[in-house]
Amino acid sequence: MLSGSKSTFFLYFLLLLIDGILHCHAWGTARHKFVVKEAPYTRLCKTKNILTVNGQFPGPTLYAYRGDEIVVDVYNRGKHNITIHWHGVKQPRNPWSDGPEYITQCPIQSGAKFSQKIIFSTEEGTIWWHAHSDWSRATVHGAIIVYPKYGTGYPFPKPWAEVPILLGEWWNKDVMDVMEEALITGGDPNVSDALTINGQPGAFYPCSKLGTYKLNVQHGQTYLLRIINAALNTILFFAIAKHNLTVVGADASYTKPLTTNYLTVAPGQSYDALLHADQSPDHHYYLAARAYSSSSAAPFDNTTTTAIIQYRKNHRHRSPCFPYLPYYNDTLAFIHSVKGLRSLANERHPISVPVKNITTPLISTVSINLFPCPNITCEGANGSRLAASMNNISFVTPSIDILQSYYYYHITSSFSTRFPNVPPYVFNFTADILPLDLEISKRGTDVKILEYGSAVELVFQGTNVVGGIDHPMHIHGYSFFVVGSGLGNFDPYKDPLTYNLVDPPERNTAIVPKNGWLAIRFRADNPGVWFVHCHLERHQTWGMDTVLLVKNGRHVNETLLPPPPDMPPC
């Protein structure tokens, strides 16, 4: 029997070991196994096979501490090629494991395996992982929870419990067939048949009430909701009946507390929000989400998904209360919901916004476009094929991934480095009526080269070409500071005077408002090849993408890590 200090040491060691197991923290690199395979799931009265990781939908949650490294062995046992992206993980000097198909790697073929190293750096909070090939991410996705550095804590009182909330979409058809049909017809893809919360549609859909996700809460306690929009094509309003949410983090970066009665969450975005269980235990309360869609022309899923909050020891089973959600096209409600978001920006969690000496100012339009359909009639506007672009270039995915082409084989024949710094055509971008010749974009695989360490300001300018709509823009390998946004055309003389350069929110995905603009800043200090794209899947498929090719710096710790030995072959 142990006694005295030996007993205390043994107990302390045991507690550390248990904590490490619970949070996937270990001395060394933690390893996880992802088996991509089909599994049968029943929703909306129908059973079909869907692509999953480890048979789970949503997929397994990964846990890490700030600064950890983990390895995920991805085995592809599905019918289609696959890649996995670690959304919001900066992956310093390690684009090899970032995941976008034909950008940083060729896909993992059926029957093959790829071991991906995930390097966490400054992330703290909620991010996620998802497939990044075709539309597989509809069902191949899951949460990533990054705890504060081992031995430290949150900058807010520790919650009673933490709950991942993944918002998504469900199609009765095979989602790959939905994508292929849209590519053939040239029109908008069929909208989803249901929205989901943690994989379940909820009470307002057929055959779904019994499966509704339920969150049991203890009255008087506080819960940390880790909210992720994993939907393919839908920005969502999210709210909880009679309960406010206090946002304390966004995209794995802490924020000043912001209390609100609803959130606007775009595909790709995540929020950490505190829920205080302070309402009457005699009722149930709906969590609900429905679409925000500002375009009058684009079809969308106009249904509402629900989950239920029920207080423990509630046996009365009264009808649940329903929350307030803004109307589907309420742009002002969207703007209001994000306007007050600010970085925590204190001594313990400082930020570093490029303020002076912006060395690389960039402006890029983000537009819906058209291509002619010779000899046939397509289902886009005026019988044309729908497309999308950045600076009037509709991105064409190469057949050999850009990262290996440039850094490994030293060839640039598969892409061009001529992505323009400013729009090639300057016009009234948000006018109600625009010349038809502006609708046709140029196809190309054009990337933008950035010098290591350059201070970048990138203004995304939405346009009314074909039709205006919101665009959630995501940059791989970086988080960025949202220093300004507004409606209408960006004014380079007046609008920078309104920038927030003190405590702007730090995001990895941010929404360009319909017929408006978004200004972001970051320092190009992560060498590699990094994808930039709209996170509405149909817009990415149509070509609203480009690539940032960030050169190596002068020092060893400013250059790319070597490629892993098992990179998938092209």
Keywords:
570 residues, six-stranded mixed β-sheet, 5 helices, 32 strands, globular
Your description of this structure?
The model is unreliable at 1-27 (pLDDT under 50). Strand 1 and strand 2 (46-53) form a beta hairpin. The chain is globular, with a radius of gyration of 23 Å. The strands form 7 sheets. The chain has a 6-stranded mixed β-sheet with strand order 10-9-12-17-14-15, with no helix packed on it. Strands 21-20-25-30-27-28 form a 6-stranded mixed β-sheet. The chain has 5 helices and 32 strands. With 570 residues, the protein is mainly beta.
SSE inventory with pairings:
Elements: H1 4-22, E1 30-43, E2 46-53, E3 62-65, E4 69-76, E5 84-87, E6 113-119, E7 125-131, E8 141-147, E9 161-170, H2 175-185, E10 194-197, E11 214-217, E12 222-229, E13 235-240, E14 245-250, E15 253-260, E16 263-265, E17 270-276, E18 284-292, E19 304-311, H3 331-339, E20 360-371, E21 385-390, E22 393-395, H4 402-408, E23 442-444, E24 447-450, E25 455-462, E26 471-475, E27 480-487, E28 506-507, E29 509-512, E30 516-523, E31 528-534, H5 537-542, E32 545-550
Parallel strand pairs: 1-4, 3-8, 9-12, 11-19, 20-25, 22-23, 24-32
Antiparallel strand pairs: 1-2, 4-6, 5-7, 7-8, 9-10, 12-17, 13-16, 13-18, 14-15, 14-17, 18-19, 20-21, 25-30, 26-29, 26-31, 27-28, 27-30, 31-32
Total DSSP helices: 5
End-to-end separation: 60 Å
Q: What's the total number of strands?
A: 32
Biggest sheet layout: 6 strands, mixed
Task: Extract low-pLDDT stretches.
Answer: 1-27
Strand fraction: 35-45%
Protein structure class: mainly beta
Radius of gyration: 23 Å
- Specify the overall morphology: globular
What percent of the residues sit in helical stretches (DSSP H or I)? under 10%
Residue-averaged pLDDT, rounded? 93
Main sheet: strand order: 10-9-12-17-14-15
